[in-house]
Design brief:
With 613 residues, this protein is α+β, with helices and mostly antiparallel strands. Helix content is 41%, strand content 16%. It has a 6-stranded antiparallel sheet with strand order 2-3-1-9-8-10, with helices on one face. The longest helix is centred in the last third of the chain and has 19 residues, at 590-608. The radius of gyration is 24 Å and the shape is globular. The two termini are 35 Å apart.
């Protein structure tokens, strides 16, 4: 894990500009910061790199890394680099034991589109002097970030926004349309469209590479789509195959020459990964958990069950000591964006504790919800699908859903098994509840129609999950996890985001994914006799969550003064509406509390960018 930054400019940068750029990147790679300068037609190209040493700690693996006329800066990990080296690269003489050198030789041997052979996470830039092209790539699911910007006839890219801001030497205008969208519809729309919180800034999409010539022509290509061909295996075979792939995924993501730690919640996702690491791979495991005073989000009982079952070393981090507006302000300043959700505020505290124990890697269970069926509404999508395809399975599943799942659901609409027959899939945007009310807070009301992308999947359940994986829940979560971990010079790894695993699970028939009132049926069965049995079979979903109430309680003395202060925020939001909402202190639904958190979140962000309006 590292930081990368580059630019194609008309004149050479000053010494102070170069020095400051490397300094801004140092948290992402405290072990080494370097750069190289090249001619690019009539322009100059700079490649900056900051290294967090994970594999082959020797200086020989520092970057930019070059072979003849090809130069690489790389952020991430290629987990199958040893296999690639053995299979494809025997003609090369290696100087290091790193995945960096393997990545560069793979490009040299196979040219563009070689990413299909990689298993890992990455964003990288390769400058090919002979071809006079720069090649930028991002991993399949977007675990590693890549922002880019055209400014007149110059081009900039980086792992973090602050580096682009510094290099262009001027402000980036705020995108008020996107800010309004986030306030009304929430975090699921942050990456659903091509908009950014800054007007001129772009994200390179996951599964995508671009080629740029010295006239700054950009050609974009996609190299990966999920395999949606349905397999014909029995449920038992699918469970066994999933188990094998998951174990291999956890094993590969533990490859390192430095200490690592695991994030552990009370749910089946992180429990699966930690249990495999301890019981199957026989690794010494250190785990970390967030502890919230709010009983709705407190997972201590399940966490203790896993700790006792596995005999692992564990640390709890209490939210109450850190969860306040001052800490939130510091985090937004670092992110250069509003925080995606309140959950990623608590995630940053987890990464801080992991760093304090001198770990360099954090392994999490992110992605399982979008791959294995993890949300309460997924049951309704399956019921809708079965009602139209298999009546016998529909009635059986409906009975189990009513008995086991319905009593756990708080949202009254999601308690209706036939919700989509009542409302219709197209016109009822259940996942953006009360958007009309939130829009009324804006001086210029903002209403959009949010449709799912059609992946032509076997079922509407899989289509919904693919939208979550590539457009809604996963992209902003991965962006925030990367920023939070790298703030403390920690690399975040996600075993569920392995394309071999994703391709396989999406080939499993939808009717096998959820059974007996259980979501994540395939995952739960694949870790039978590995994870604690009570945790494995716990149907209640809390997720890696934190209570908005906890934040408000810890920030109560500061919030009112903060909301009263002058701000460009009130150029788009009605101050009267805010204070009526704020002073009532009565929130009819839990999502109203999250809306209030987002109001505070956006106000902090806009206050930091006061001069950009």
């Amino acid at each position: 894990m590292c930081g990368i930054t580059g630019c194609i400019v008309n004149k050479e940068l000053t010494h102070n500009k170069i020095k400051k750029t490397l300094s801004l990147m140092s948290h992402r790679g405290p072990d080494n910061q370097s750069y190289r300068l090249f001619r690019f037609g009539k322009k100059f190209i700079y490649l900056f790199h900051s290294r967090l040493s994970i594999i082959d700690l020797n200086d020989r693996s520092n970057q930019p890394f070059s072979y003849n006329s090809v130069h690489l800066i790389f952020n991430g990990e290629i987990y199958n680099f040893k296999e690639l080296k053995e299979l494809y690269l025997k003609e090369f003489s290696f100087k290091t034991k790193s995945d960096t050198e393997v990545l560069l030789y793979m490009y040299i041997k196979f040219g563009k589109d070689f990413e299909k052979k990689l298993n890992g996470m990455w964003s990288f830039a390769i400058f090919d002097e002979n071809k006079q092209k720069i090649y930028l790539s991002r991993d399949r699911f977007g675990e590693k970030p890549m922002h880019y910007l055209f400014d007149n006839d110059e081009f900039y890219f980086s792992s973090e926004i602050k580096n682009i801001k510094h290099l262009i030497g001027k402000s980036l205008d705020l995108n008020l349309n996107h800010i309004s969208r986030f306030l009304v519809y929430g975090y699921k729309t942050i990456n659903k469209y091509k908009d950014h919180f800054y007007k001129s800034l772009h994200r390179l999409e996951p599964s995508t590479y671009v080629e740029i010539d010295n006239d700054l022509n950009l050609i974009k290509n996609k190299y990966y789509d999920v395999n949606l061909r349905q397999n014909n295996f029995s449920v038992e075979e699918n469970i066994e195959n999933t188990r094998d792939i998951l174990i291999n995924s956890v094993k590969s993501r533990m490859i390192a020459d430095v200490p690592l730690a695991f994030c552990l919640s009370g749910g089946v996702d992180s429990t699966s990964i930690v249990s495999i690491a301890k019981k199957i791979l026989n690794k010494n495991v250190k785990t970390y958990s967030i502890l919230d005073d709010d009983d709705r989000y407190n997972e201590k009982k399940n966490i203790l069950k896993s700790i006792n079952h596995l005999g692992i070393n564990h640390q709890f981090i209490e939210l109450k000591d850190h969860f306040n507006i001052r800490s939130l302000s510091d985090l937004i300043k670092y992110h250069d964006e509003p925080l995606c959700t309140i959950n990623f505020f608590s995630h940053s505290l987890l990464q801080k504790a992991i760093k304090q124990d001198n770990n360099k890697i954090s392994i999490s269970g992110i992605g399982a919800d979008e791959i294995f069926t993890g949300y309460f509404d997924h049951h309704l999508f399956l019921l809708h699908y079965l009602n139209n395809s298999d009546k016998e399975k529909f009635y059986k599943y409906k009975e189990n859903w009513s008995k086991y799942i319905k009593p756990l659901i708080q949202n009254p609409d999601l308690k209706k098994h036939n919700l989509f027959q009542i409302k219709g899939l197209e016109e009822y945007e259940y996942r953006y509840m009360r958007y009309d009310y939130y829009s009324s807070f804006l001086i210029n009301e903002f209403i959009e129609d949010h449709k799912d992308v059609n992946f032509e999947a076997e079922s509407i359940l899989k289509n919904r999950m693919l939208n979550e994986l590539f457009y809604e829940t996963m992209p902003p979560a991965l962006d925030n996890e990367d920023l939070n971990s790298m703030y403390y010079s920690v690399e975040n790894r996600s075993p569920f985001l392995n394309h071999d695993l994703v391709d396989y699970v999406y080939s499993i028939p939808s009717s096998q994914l959820m059974r007996d009132g259980y979501s994540k049926y395939i995952l739960r069965e694949s870790i039978k006799d590995i994870a604690d049995e009570e945790v494995r079979l716990d149907r209640l979903k809390r997720g890696f969550n934190a209570s908005a109430d906890s934040f408000f309680k810890n920030s109560s003395t500061d919030l009112l003064d903060f909301m009263k202060s002058d701000s460009p925020f009130y150029e788009i939001i009605s101050k009267d509406k805010i204070f009526n909402f704020f002073n009532e202190n009565i929130f009819y639904e839990n999502w109203d509390k999250k809306f209030l958190f987002n109001l505070i979140n956006i106000k902090l962000f806009m206050d930091m960018n006061y001069d950009l309006l």
